[in-house]
């Protein structure tokens, strides 16, 4: 501003054109921001679900549950609303894209995207007890039994159990190699139980990729619950990586009799639902396979 005043005083010795050019060079330049795209209004429900993996109705339900935790007090014009934060996180889950690419697409910096994804993920994780739980009542168990029974007539099945590897980047620490699995990449070995309709009822996601499936189960709360008969006569179905127990049915090593062959066919045909569940989960959210 002082320089501008000095220039005005000296303007008599300069042409009008030169004076205007000089003034424009010292005036503060306005900051220009690109308007952020609002995908919620930009896309119809089909395109929205394809890009963000949730319908608009499901998106709004989820937003209503976590938006209070996503509010950020800021007087800056470019503060991100809870809706946009959730959209950014879902888009990242849906693409597995590098955060820099995603940041350019949504018009925010990659470091902001990183913080948003972490924050939104933690908020969503707090909802786990409401939506991922084993059947508690006898009525709930009977409903699950019926669903599995319709697959291959295997009675009293409360869930199919297995583990799947979720890729991660190298932890870069002294324990980093513990996360390298038998296939050579870094991962978290996630244990899950599902119902016949591909709905998760139990998830344990805290073990390094080098840990065996059976070790995860042996150290889980779920095993303790079965050992304490909290689920009555209910059965879990697992693959050959688990030890056979009175509540955990696994395939036979070498079925010979007709009865053993029928058991094998029913066990494998029913248990495979957990593999289909993992497949649907990872296809819906490719970030789980990218790391």
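^ structure tokens above, recovered residues below v
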């Amino acid at each position: 501003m002082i320089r501008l005043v000095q220039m005005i005083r000296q303007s008599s010795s300069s042409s009008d054109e030169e004076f205007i050019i000089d003034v424009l060079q010292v005036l503060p330049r306005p900051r220009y921001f690109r308007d952020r795209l609002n995908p919620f209004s930009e896309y119809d429900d089909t395109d929205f679900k394809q890009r963000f993996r949730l319908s608009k109705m499901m998106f709004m339900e989820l937003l209503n549950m976590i938006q209070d935790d996503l509010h950020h007090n800021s007087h800056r014009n470019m503060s991100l609303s809870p809706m946009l934060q959730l959209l950014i996180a879902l888009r990242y889950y849906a693409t597995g894209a590098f955060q820099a690419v995603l940041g350019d697409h949504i018009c925010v910096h990659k470091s902001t995207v990183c913080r948003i994804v972490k924050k939104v993920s933690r908020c969503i994780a707090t909802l786990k007890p409401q939506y991922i739980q084993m059947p508690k009542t006898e009525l709930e168990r009977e409903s699950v039994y019926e669903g599995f029974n319709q697959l291959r007539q295997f009675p009293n099945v409360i869930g199919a159990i297995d583990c799947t590897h979720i890729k991660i980047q190298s932890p870069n620490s002294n324990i980093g190699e513990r996360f390298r699995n038998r296939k050579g990449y870094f991962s978290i070995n996630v244990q899950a139980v599902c119902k016949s309709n591909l709905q998760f009822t139990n998830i344990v996601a805290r073990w390094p990729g080098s840990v065996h499936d059976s070790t995860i189960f042996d150290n889980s709360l779920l095993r303790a619950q079965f050992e304490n008969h909290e689920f009555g006569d209910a059965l879990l179905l697992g693959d050959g990586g688990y030890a056979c127990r009175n509540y955990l049915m696994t395939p036979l090593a070498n079925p010979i009799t007709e009865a053993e062959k029928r058991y094998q066919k029913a066990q494998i045909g029913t248990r495979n639902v957990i593999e289909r569940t993992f497949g649907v989960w990872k296809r819906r959210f490719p970030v789980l396979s990218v790391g």
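Residues 132-290 form one domain.
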